[in-house]
Amino acid sequence: QVQLVESGGGSVPAGGSLRLSCAASGYTYSGYCMGWFRQAPGKEREGVAAIYTGGTMTYYADSVKGRFTISQDNTKNTLYLQMNSLKPEDTAMYYCAAEGHCGGRWWRSYEYTYRGQGTQVTVSS
């Protein structure tokens, strides 16, 4: 059974940093994307970043480019999202997801097979 467990969320002031982690169990890394998504109250879920598990290709939403960095440690089966220069508009529930399609479809959360329960990120102004 595949489980994705996020951690690292919290409350920070604008300009602060957080590092999210997603521990994957029962999942075999293969030629798919793993990604981070977020959803704020009253808004649709949006893709934040994704990474090709078979290599180093990464994908980012324009709103986070230059501020967020996605990475993976396959030896630990863990996905990370380093978030710097946080803004109030980054406030949302953040989810990791596995087994999605990379390339131009990386942002389609509904195409990912597995998803975690989420971790809350709150950025105050």
Describe the overall structure.
- It is a single chain.
- This protein is mainly β.
- Helix content is 0%, strand content 50%.
- The chain is built from no helices and eleven strands.
- Strands 2, 4, 5, 6, 9, 10 and 11 form a seven-stranded mixed β-sheet that branches. A four-stranded antiparallel β-sheet has the order 1-3-8-7, with no helix packed on it.
- A hairpin with a 5-residue loop joins β5 (46-52) and β6.
- The N and C termini lie far apart (40 Å).
Tally of DSSP β-strands: 11
* Main sheet overview: 7 strands, mixed
Low-confidence stretches: none
What structural category do the secondary elements indicate? mainly beta
Query: What integer is the average pLDDT?
Result: 95
Q: Into which percentage range does the β-strand content fall?
A: over 45%
Overall shape: it is: globular
Q: What pattern of helices and strands is seen along the backbone?
A: EEEEEEEEEEE
Share of helix among residues? under 10%
Radius of gyration: 13 Å
Q: Helical region count?
A: 0
Distance between the termini: 40 Å
Give descriptors for this structure.
125 residues; mainly beta; 7-stranded mixed β-sheet; 4-stranded antiparallel β-sheet
Question: In summary, what is this structure?
Answer:
It contains no helices and eleven strands. The chain is mainly β. β4 (33-39) and β5 (46-52) form a beta hairpin.
Could you outline the blueprint of secondary structure elements for this entry?
Layout lengths: L2 E5 L2 E4 L4 E8 L7 E7 L6 E7 L5 E3 L7 E6 L4 E6 L8 E9 L13 E2 L3 E6 L1
Parallel strand pairs: 2-11
Antiparallel strand pairs: 1-3, 3-8, 4-5, 4-9, 5-6, 7-8, 9-10, 9-11
